[in-house]
Amino acid sequence: MELLAIAAFAFLATHLGVSSTPLRGLLVSALGEGLYQGLYSLVAVVALGLMIYAYASVPHHDYLWYPSRELHLAASGLMLVSSVLLAMGLLSKNPTSVGMTSAVRRETAGIFRITRHPVQWAFLLWAIAHGLANGDVATLILAGTIGLVSGLGMLAIDARRRRGADADWQAFYQTTSAIPFAALASGRARLALGDLNWVAFAAGLVLYAAFYWFHGTIAAVPLR
Known about the structure:
single chain; mainly alpha; 2 domains
C-alpha cells in the first residue's frame, strides 16, 4: 500500500505541482516547450504506470463501504456519461488541450457549449464511478488521485487562461462553463441538436459497450 501511496503522490505532484504552478513557466523557459512537454509526458506516464502496478499488487479487502447492486448501477450510469464525454471531447478540437489552443479562435460549438472540459469531466466521473462501485481503500486512492487531478486540473487550466488578456480566450470563457450545462442555464450559450457531433456521440456509446464487455479482460473484474 505504501508504493501505491507514493505513486499517487508522484502523479498528483506531476500534474498539480508542476503544470499548474509557476514552475511550469520556469521549466518551459529553461527547456523549451517541446522538450518540457516530452519530459512531462514521460514522467506522468511513468507515475501512472507505477500507480496502476501498485494498485494491482495490493489486496482489495479493506472496505470503507461494501459494493452493492445499487452502487454498481449508479456507477454504470456514470460510466455511460463518462464514455460519451470522453469520445466527444477527444474527437473535437478542444482549446484547453495541449497543442490545440489555436482552436479557441473558432466559434464555440458542440460539446463545449455543455462544458469546456469534457475530457476532464470524463475522468472525474470515471473516478467517482469506480470509487462508488468498489469502496475499498486501494481503489479510493487510485480513483481519488485521478479524480483530484481532473477536478483541480480544470480549475488550474481556467485560472491560467483567465490571467491572460487574449480576446479569443475571454470570449471562450464568456460562452462556456466548467460545470456542465451552467452556461446554457444562464443563457450565455445556446445548444441545438444539430450542433452536436453525433458520430462522436455514437463512438462514446461504442466505447462504453467495449468497456462493459471487456472489463474482465482489462481489470480482471467481469461485469457480465
